[in-house]
Structure formats: structure tokens, C-alpha cells
Amino acid sequence: MSSPEKIRIAVLGASGYTGAELLRFLLRHPAAEITALTAEKNAGQKTGAVLPHLDFEDLPGLARVAEVDWSRVDLAFCCLPHGVTQDVIAGLPRHVRIVDLSADFRLADVEAYAAAYGQKHRAPALQKEAVYGLTEIYRAQIEKARLVANPGCYPTSAQLPLIPLLREKLIEAADIVIDSKSGVTGAGREAKPGSLYAEVGEGVHAYGVATHRHAPEIDQGLSAAAGRTVTASFTPHLMPMNRGLLSTIYVKLAAGKTAGDLRGALEAAYAGEAFVKILPEGLSPATRHVRGVNLCVTGVFADRRAGRAILVSAIDNLVKGASGQAIQNMNRMSGLPETMGLDYIALFP
Amino acid sequence: MSSPEKIRIAVLGASGYTGAELLRFLLRHPAAEITALTAEKNAGQKTGAVLPHLDFEDLPGLARVAEVDWSRVDLAFCCLPHGVTQDVIAGLPRHVRIVDLSADFRLADVEAYAAAYGQKHRAPALQKEAVYGLTEIYRAQIEKARLVANPGCYPTSAQLPLIPLLREKLIEAADIVIDSKSGVTGAGREAKPGSLYAEVGEGVHAYGVATHRHAPEIDQGLSAAAGRTVTASFTPHLMPMNRGLLSTIYVKLAAGKTAGDLRGALEAAYAGEAFVKILPEGLSPATRHVRGVNLCVTGVFADRRAGRAILVSAIDNLVKGASGQAIQNMNRMSGLPETMGLDYIALFP
Amino acid sequence: MSSPEKIRIAVLGASGYTGAELLRFLLRHPAAEITALTAEKNAGQKTGAVLPHLDFEDLPGLARVAEVDWSRVDLAFCCLPHGVTQDVIAGLPRHVRIVDLSADFRLADVEAYAAAYGQKHRAPALQKEAVYGLTEIYRAQIEKARLVANPGCYPTSAQLPLIPLLREKLIEAADIVIDSKSGVTGAGREAKPGSLYAEVGEGVHAYGVATHRHAPEIDQGLSAAAGRTVTASFTPHLMPMNRGLLSTIYVKLAAGKTAGDLRGALEAAYAGEAFVKILPEGLSPATRHVRGVNLCVTGVFADRRAGRAILVSAIDNLVKGASGQAIQNMNRMSGLPETMGLDYIALFP
Amino acid sequence: MSSPEKIRIAVLGASGYTGAELLRFLLRHPAAEITALTAEKNAGQKTGAVLPHLDFEDLPGLARVAEVDWSRVDLAFCCLPHGVTQDVIAGLPRHVRIVDLSADFRLADVEAYAAAYGQKHRAPALQKEAVYGLTEIYRAQIEKARLVANPGCYPTSAQLPLIPLLREKLIEAADIVIDSKSGVTGAGREAKPGSLYAEVGEGVHAYGVATHRHAPEIDQGLSAAAGRTVTASFTPHLMPMNRGLLSTIYVKLAAGKTAGDLRGALEAAYAGEAFVKILPEGLSPATRHVRGVNLCVTGVFADRRAGRAILVSAIDNLVKGASGQAIQNMNRMSGLPETMGLDYIALFP
């Protein structure tokens, strides 16, 4: 069953939503072979028992991380909780490349990590080695990385439209408001009261107002692009839907610039990109049009207020916001075409 | 059946969602007697045929506006489309008081109306007479009004938290961003493609970005409060839910002011109000906690950016954003206790 | 604050959905005074912390059952898990009347209880005393009861349409299929994986096929009506909605009988009932038309197969299927008008 | 762009949900080339204007049927309304093979068609030629067909589990109850009041009780399998979800047979089938586990009533219930592997 030319893959934390989404792509990826799946609580079960939609697929059973035979693994996707992740990754053999979907290696500054996540970082050396996996922006570094820190869903939706604009100084770095709306899978598969159907259905609310842990991650990327420290206003909202993430971003134009200039700059920055699309004037993206696919689609509008613009970006939080981008990074780390195994059409409706 | 001391009420356009919601309140209102219901397309049908949840209630059948016996009507709620509304209202006898839920009389400036609604206003004299029905703010004028223009849902959610802050100059009038999320009943009951379940369910999108007709209505109220022209950034979003409207509002503090000052000012402004509530520090409202009730609940947060704050307000778009506030205005216009017939508890979940 | 003529009420297990729903009705009930609320895990918190939609109401804080001052309680609603319930109720002073919303006292046969719930009944004497609280059917006994076992949601939706038909032998007792669809609040507020939004949204499935614990409860009621042992086919389904329960019931007509005969019999049986309604020919009920109200609405149809009929009944699982019926029983036990505090109109949409 | 070895395809009625779903599969199908798309109302527009999720794909624009160059079409998928369909298909050149997703050619008996659809069939000769496209059952005929009548969604979910059981006389043909629950896309993309979000969300109802047009189609298939006339009880329900269809089927076992016998017979009948799966004892399917994929999954249970069983089948109404099965038929008609272009994994959640 093993093909020498295939990448042998372990998915750690395979029983959650990002794990399941990785399996959806990997099972049909021409260059991937899944050799190990782990899930501490469900270890010993077959994968289809926990993910019934995969019950008809040929998959390894669920094991504990400690049971994985790493000699049969070339690359690991890590879908574990933050904190736990750094310990697990620190223990992996050096030949295993890693795409980490947790937050543990996203913040270059371990002090910022400690402040946001309430615990000292226990693998600062690994943190130095980690490359931030926003593929379109850090492609060259990702190609050479052993450890890629896959971006958070909110940061992906905010950085892709904003980074080119900040790099070209088309907008004011000091005045950015990001209002984001996410489907509930962003909160994971853990049985938390706030994720119950009856606490999410038929309603909307903001959470983590001005305190969400993705904010420093957003700041980090925007600051690098602006060449100065950026602090963004950022409010996430929980939506009554499974998937999808929309960010509405309010910006101040640099002197003399127009919304059309922003659109033009984004079109130029992402020309030829398979997974980032800029809409023509007047069109606004919808999360339902990117359901299940590795796309970030952005619309650009002149604001009613003079000298300002509004950007609206849509992703599927589990795909371009997590597992799809992780596969994109795997492809890039492995010298494969970046789009391999990701060429899907959105499931609409 | 008629009680001389009761207000005899007509609901024009009774077959839509705001009409149905008025009937929910009026049927249990101690001082209301429903004497006429109209629905042009469904005229001749019994009301329960169009609104089956009311089939067991004692209600007049649906008639055309032209068929109403106005001698039996003291007060009319008008739930007709804009444009049509001004003609109908212009034709009503003077003894009939009116709460208009359309947009036709909300904008004091008929030129602004023409610009926003794409048609010349045909009843400018009536417009002069109309009072804007944001009850907590214009209570005194409403008491004496014959014609009350009931506010739009978005403007209600934006103005209630912002007006006291602008009046007291606690925030900068020139830098206000309002990001709003509304349930789909805000679009009415007309069979439009964009309101189909499969075009709304499991997704979110912005619409009318920088062009929505509620924006000039918001500006009008904020300008009056600030004593200068205010233009707000405003983006509405369509949510996969029936009811509820959340506005996340980003403001710049006046020099030396804090988020706590804003909360204090709102608590003071709305102390003793039955239908406007300010949450303590750290709490954020959810639309599901105001489902079906005439409440606007607001949370106040310090922003991550220095010198800025974030306000989050929640209403039920059909209640405080439409029919509930209309009843509140009727009560006020009729010398009744403002809370009469509105003392409900939210339907959660 | 205490009024001697009011019923002083404790709600045990007040932090869940049936508890919250009881509070919605009790807070506006003219003859009710809430003197104690319990919630073991949340004891010590104010009620609004756990049920934020009640934060603006005047309510006691949450205590443990052991802390309740029973001298200030006339009647207790018990919303505790089965098993726990019988111990708690066995420990209550005799002056306290009880409406129990758990399953512990619904099955007259303690052996049937043991089989369905996997544990020996520990209060068989109390079980003998308990009256089954399907109000329209057992009204006379309920009036005199100290302990009323409030029916399950599925059994309510199935028994109300079927009992009159079985009593009058209009249908064959041996051939009854009940296919039920319930909103997710029926599973309670506990953080279980199967109740997560992402495990319920955008999908439907059957559960407990042929093994659900409500089946013996249904059989018990149908058997009593038929005067012989009835075993019904029964399949519950979990729906992507908060509230509502629809039962589609397939029956075989007694020789010579028609669907019209069934409708006529139901109309006669429930003539004058405030909370049970039979639809005219051709109409089918929808759960959204009974949202939030204490109604059971039934439609009756001739089947395509000769000699058979289909009944469709709709309730709100939290109201007529739980807390609304519980209040109805309280009213009856207290000599109050049965509809007191329950005269609401459905929240549509 | 044209490859001589590819099947050149027209999709008639491409702007609706089944059309869009065909495009999702066809755009990634190795042997398909889309040469024409029609949509009468939207003719002249680019396809991405009506189906924004396809805006980044290379697709012909929308034309009218009358404008199609049939010399460039080998096979047409027909997603037009019934009635219209037979006229359009009658007008197509003979070299064009057709998979018709409408109801116009499903019923072999044109009198039955007239009774169900309220109009005389105007292409009875074509009807004689048409093959019913339930692929697993009529594979041999489909291979040779020019015109395949793709089954309805409800009939697919009912026939796949029942036909093998009737053929082998394991169940009583005279006592079959089919209770089905469908997502709202089954009603199409037309702007009808009953398909509005607010009329479907947060609720469930039965419709077309004992009168739905899919019932004669179900009877036709079951009768052929049983070798006698079968009339099934059938009730469809509208669910608050986009996609998915669950049928709960209540059957009487033939003398001496068990639920295990049914499961065994289904396993044997569908052994080796890629798109029909039978679950092991105790497992029940969920529509969310077949979202977006061409699968019918069935669970089999002993009923509580002796001598009876319950089958639960799940499909995606737009895939195995419409467009996926249509591609499966195209593959079979074209001598391609049946699974080509259909090998997807469900989008969960």
C-alpha cells in the first residue's frame, strides 16, 4: 500500500473538525499517504466511529501520539490544543516536518505568546525555527521550513487583504477596524456549553471583545507589512452556521488614494494566485460561495466617509482558515504544485 | 365587542412580519381593539389563512385599504412599502393618528429622502408634521404627534447607544463605524430570491455596503445629537436567523475620556428606562437574549487601541426595531403607560 | 413582597431550558411568587449570570436544594435529571406540592421504569401517589394530586391526538406508527457532543430507533385508552432547530371509519379546550406556528392507502411538551383557571 | 479547448440548484466538457453573475435553449420545470443523449403522469423510449438509453432500500410507511413564499400529505420490484436545512424474517456498489455525513412491534437525489467508469 514517492503523513488530533477537514483533502490528494492518526481520548477506536462520514474510507485507526511509529512518517499535521502542542512537537524526531494548526508557534515573540495564552512558552528554540504559514505572503520561507505555524482563521481573513495595502502605504496603519463573523466550527469540537446548538442557533453575539487571542497575531502580520507597530481594533462574532468567516475591515486611505487604488493594488498583488481573489467594483463576497474551498475572496468599497474604504473578505474558516491552507503549506514544503489536492468547487448552497 | 374606552386600531399591511408582530402585541394589549386589517394582495381572506399562528384568535378579516371604515378607527399602524405609504397616509381622515413603520416620514429633509429612495417625496407637508419615533429620545414630541415615523431597525440599534454620548461630547462625532448584523425578517415577507432559505442559511454576507438607505437616517439622528453634521461608516450584514440585530460600534473617545465614562453616561441617560439596558463591565449582549421583547441592551468595552471604545447593542429587529417600538409610541401618543402590553420575557432559546 | 394569596414556588434545576421556560411563565403569572431557585453546579450565582435574558428581572439567586427554606414554598417544579429526582422528591416536606418534569414518576409500573431507565425505582410508594399530568386527559385526578408527573414531550404530542381515537375505537390499536421530529432543546442544556451546533446544524438523523425511553410512556397512555396493551412503532429524530416537535402518526382505521370521522371525534373531544386545536380538512400544522405557546395543533388526512389515515401534531417541546403543561397542571392543582399565565401568542417567525 | 475524446455537454436550466450542482461535478470531471448553458430568464448574463461561487471558473455564458448550437453537444442535462421539459426534449436532435432531471419522463404510465401533474403528456412516444435512471437498479437499460429520466429525490431514498427487500419478498408489499424529511433546496431556486428563510427556519412541517407527486413514482418502482401493485404511505416534511434527505421507513416482515435478514439482503444486493452503503447493526445514518456526496446510506433496525422493522436511509437530495445520480447515469450511458468525477468525501460539518 505504501508508495515510496508519496508523503507519509500523520495527523495528530484527527478527531476534531480541522483534523476531519485535513482527511477530506488528504484522502484524495495524489501525493499523500496517511500512515498515522491520533486522538488521545478516542485512541483504540476506528476513525469511522468518531467521524462517521469517513467510515467507508480506508484509514488507519486512532492511536495515541505515544504509539506512532515515526519511521513511517514524513510530515505531521498537528491539530492539538495550544500548550500541549509545543511539548508534542518538541518530542518529534527531526526528520518529521510539521504543519502546526495550533497557536503555539504563530507569535514570534514568546512574551507576546505568554501574555495572550497565559503560559510561558516552553519551546522557544523551536519557535525561532518556525515559519508563519500565510502561504501567499511567506511562500519562500515556507518552502524551506521544517516547522510551519499555520495561521489562525481570523488572522488569515484580515491579513490577506491588508498586507499588500500596508506594504504599499495605501492605507493608514494607525486606523484599522476589523469586524469578523465566524461559524461555530472555529470553536472546535469540544463539548462546551457555549457551542451547544441552542446557545448558538437563531442569534449572534460578539465575544472576546478587545481581548481575543488572534488580535496579537493580526498585529504581528500587519506590523511587519507596515514597517511599524500596528494595533488593530478587532471584534469576533459567533454566527449560527457551521462554516464560514467574513471580515469587514474599515480603513483610512493614505492621502490622495481611492478605493479603486486599493482594489488595483490587491489585484496586482494577487494576480495569478489560485486561492486569493479580488472582486470587481460593486461586488461583495459571501461565505456560502467559498464553502469547502481554499479561497479568500475580497470586495473593496469606497466608504460613505470621505477618505476611507471598506474591505470585505470571505473564507471558509476550516479551509483557507485552517486545513486547506495547511495542505497548501504541505505542498509548498514538499516541492509539489501549490494547488495539488485543493482544486475543489464550493458547495453551494 | 367594541369598548368605548379602548383605542380602535387599524393595521395596514397586516400580512407581513411587522404586521404579524403588531398583532401579537395588540391582541393582548389591555387598551387596544383591532377593528381593521388590510392586505391588498390577500384582501378577502381571513387573517388566519395568511398568518396561521393567529388562526385561533378573534380577528377581522383582511380588507383593502379602500374598504376600511375610518369612523371606527382611532389609530393606524402603517406597514406598507415606502412610496405607497405617503399616498395612503395623505388620504387618511385627520382624526386618525398614525404610527408609520415605513421609511417615508423618517427623513426630515425631503431632498435626502429623494436621494435615498429614488423618488420625489409627494407629501412634504405631512413630512413637516411627522415626529421621529425613537421613543426614549423624542418622548415629549411623540406625545403630541398625530403622525409618528417609527425608526428603522438599524437606526434604532445605532442611535440609542450613540445619542447620549454625542450629546455629552464623550466621543468624536467624526469617527464612528457601525457594523450591523440583522436577521432575515428585516427584509420583509416578499418572495425575493435573496431571502430564500438556501440563499441565507449557513452563510453571511455584507450588503448595501456604504449605500444602505438606513445610513442617512442614522446620520440625521447622530447629527442632531452632536450639533454638527455626522457621517457614519455603516455596513449591514444578512444573518442566517429569523430575528435579531446586533450593532458593533467603534468610536474614538474625546480627550481624557474612558470606556467607563461612556458606560456611566449611558447608565445615567437610561436610568429608569424600561426598554434600554446597559450591561456592567465585561458583559456583551446577544440577540437571543432579547428575542421577542422590546429591549435594546448595550455593552461597552475599552478598545485595544488607546483612546477608543467599542459598543455592542442588541435588539430584536421586529420588536424594538419595529413593532414593539411602534406600540411604545402608540402608548405614549395615547396617554397610556409606556410599557403597557409590552411586558414580556425573551423567548430563550 | 410576599403576597399571602400567591402560590410560593420553588424551581429545582432552574438553570436548564425547562427551568428557564418555567421562569418565563411564572414571572408574569398573576398568582405565582418565586421564592427559591436551585442549580447544584451554579449554586451561589445570581440567576441572570446563567440565564442572561432574565438579568433584568427580580429573581432569587441560585441555591442548592439542601439550602431551600421549605417553609416558604407551597409548590415545587422539579427539573432535575431522572434518578436524582426521586431522591429529592422523597425528601420534600408533605406540604409541598410537586410538578415533576423528569421521567421518574411517569411510568406507573416500576418494573417498566427499571427496564427503560436502567435502575431500580427507589420511591415506589411515591410512584403510586403520582398522577400523570396530561392535563386534558387526567384533569380530575390532577386537581387532587400532590405529585404530578409532567409528561414527556414526545408522549404529549402522540397521546393527545391518539387517546380519543383509541377510546372510541376509531382506529386499530395494533397498528400505530409515530414518527417524531424534535428541536434540540429536548436534549437539555448539558454540554454533550451530540448537542453541539456543528453536530446538529444543517442535518437530520434518527436516534434511539425502537429503543427511546419515551416509547413505554407512550404505550402506557395508549394502552389505557384502548383498554388493551398497545405497542407503538416510534422513531424520534433530531432537528436543526431550537424548539418545536412534530409527530406524524400513521394509523389504520376501524372498519367503516374515515379520516373525517377521526377529525370529528377529535373536534368533539377537544371542543372548548384552550390548548388543543384540530385543524380543518386540508390544513397541516407547523411547529413555527406554536413557538413559545402552550398549544397542541393537529391535522388529519386520509392516507393514500385505503382504510388508513395520517395525523400530524405540532407542539413546542418546551411549552406544551414541558413547562407550559407544567404551569397548566399547577393551575389545575391550585384551583386557578387553567389558562392563567399561559395566554400567549406564538412568536412567528 | 475542445478535446475530441470528451463528452460535450449542455446543461439546460443551469441557474438553479440542480444545475449548479451538475456544474460542480462536471467542471472537475475528467471526461466532460461544458459547451452550452441555458437559463431563459438570465440569458445573456455570464454564469458567475447568477452563481457567484463559479465566477472564477471557465464557463460558457447563459443562453436561451433556442440559441444552443446542438452540433457541439453530445449530451444534455435537462433541469427545466416539468411540462416545459417534454417540449424542449422533443425538439432536440436525435444525436443528443439526455439525462432529464425533471419529472416529465419518470412515470411510464402517461395517465398516471396526467393525474399527478395535472396535464396531458405531450410526448408519449419519447416516454416509451425513456429509461428510469435509478442506476443501481436499472444499470443495463441505462447503458443503452438515449433518454434517462433521473429519479426524484424522495423516490431515490425510498426505492434503494426497499427494492431488494420486495424482490426477495422479505417484507409485506401491502404495508409500507415512508416518512421523509428534506432540505429546502428540494423546492428549487424559484422565489416562492414557502421557501423564504423565515418560513422555513426554526421549524418543521409536513406538506403534500398523501398527495405529493413523488408518491406515484415510488409506487411504480416498488410495484415493479414486488410484482404486484404497491401503494405506499408517504409523507414529506420540509426541514430547516439546505441539503439532505432522510427517509424513515416502517415495514412488516414476511413470516419468519428478521431485521437481520433485511440487513443481510441489502448488504448482498449492494455488495461492491460504490454509492449505496448499508450500516452495521445499531448504526443510524445522518444527512450531514453524506453532504455533497453521491451516497445513499441505510440503517436497519428491529421495530419494537414484533414482526416489523424500521429502515432509515440518508442521501444528499441534490447529489444522489439529483445531480450526482445524473452524472452517474451519464457515466454509464457513455461507457465510462460509473464513479468517474464522483469520488468526493462528504463536507462535514
Question: Could you describe the 3D structure shown?
Answer:
- Four copies of one chain form a homotetramer.
- Chain A has 349 residues and is of the alpha/beta class.
- The first copy, chain A, has two domains: 7-150 and 321-333, NAD(P)-binding Rossmann-like Domain (Rossmann fold), CATH 3.40.50; 154-318, Dihydrodipicolinate Reductase, domain 2 (2-Layer Sandwich).
- Chain A has helices at 17-26, 47-50, 84-90, 110-117, 124-129, 135-144, 153-167, 197-200, 214-226, 259-269, 319-333; strands spanning 7-12, 32-38, 62-63, 75-78, 97-100, 131-132, 147-149, 171-182, 205-206, 233-238, 245-253, 276-278, 296-302, 308-315.
- In chain A, the strands form two sheets. Chain A has a seven-stranded parallel sheet.
- Chains in contact: A-B, A-C, A-D, B-C, B-D, C-D.
- Chain B binds chain D through residues 17, 184-185, 189, 191-193, 195-202, 240-242, and chain D through 17, 184-185, 189, 191-193, 195-202, 240-242.
Itemize the secondary structure elements and their pairings.
4 copies of one chain form a homotetramer.
Chain A: E1 7-12, H1 17-26, E2 32-38, H2 47-50, E3 62-63, E4 75-78, H3 84-90, E5 97-100, H4 110-117, H5 124-129, E6 131-132, H6 135-144, E7 147-149, H7 153-167, E8 171-182, H8 197-200, E9 205-206, H9 214-226, E10 233-238, E11 245-253, H10 259-269, E12 276-278, E13 296-302, E14 308-315, H11 319-333
Parallel strand pairs in A: 1-2, 1-4, 2-3, 4-5, 5-7, 6-7, 8-10, 12-13
Antiparallel strand pairs in A: 8-11, 9-10, 11-14, 13-14
Helix pairs in contact in A: 1-11, 6-11, 7-9
